[in-house]
């Protein structure tokens, strides 16, 4: 019975719509940052994390394309059977 009451309390806490923490609204600051005309592309204005994500995406894209071309070349020239 005690477990059932504990489960009920946990369920009420997680489903509750009232927020216990009040977060600071940072939207105006982010809007200023992203609308600033400083010559940086918008996908890199978030800082170092954005630059790392962009480079990782580029590397995965180039690597995946190279691998796909390699596999197509291997499939188009089958090995001879002896």
TrEMBL record:
It is found in: Mitochondrion inner membrane. InterPro entries: COX7a, Cyt_c_oxidase_su7a_sf, Cytc_oxidase_su7a_met. PANTHER family: CYTOCHROME C OXIDASE POLYPEPTIDE 7A, CYTOCHROME C OXIDASE SUBUNIT 7A2, MITOCHONDRIAL. Belongs to the cytochrome c oxidase VIIa family. GO terms for molecular function: oxidoreductase activity. Pathway: Energy metabolism; oxidative phosphorylation. It is a single-pass membrane protein. Keywords: Acetylation, Membrane, Mitochondrion, Mitochondrion inner membrane, Oxidoreductase, Transit peptide, Transmembrane, Transmembrane helix. Pfam families: COX7a. This is Cytochrome c oxidase subunit 7A2, mitochondrial. The keyword Acetylation applies. It comes from Leptonychotes weddellii. One of its GO terms (cellular component) is mitochondrial inner membrane. SUPFAM superfamilies: Mitochondrial cytochrome c oxidase subunit VIIa. The gene is LOC102728579. One of its GO terms (biological process) is mitochondrial respirasome assembly.
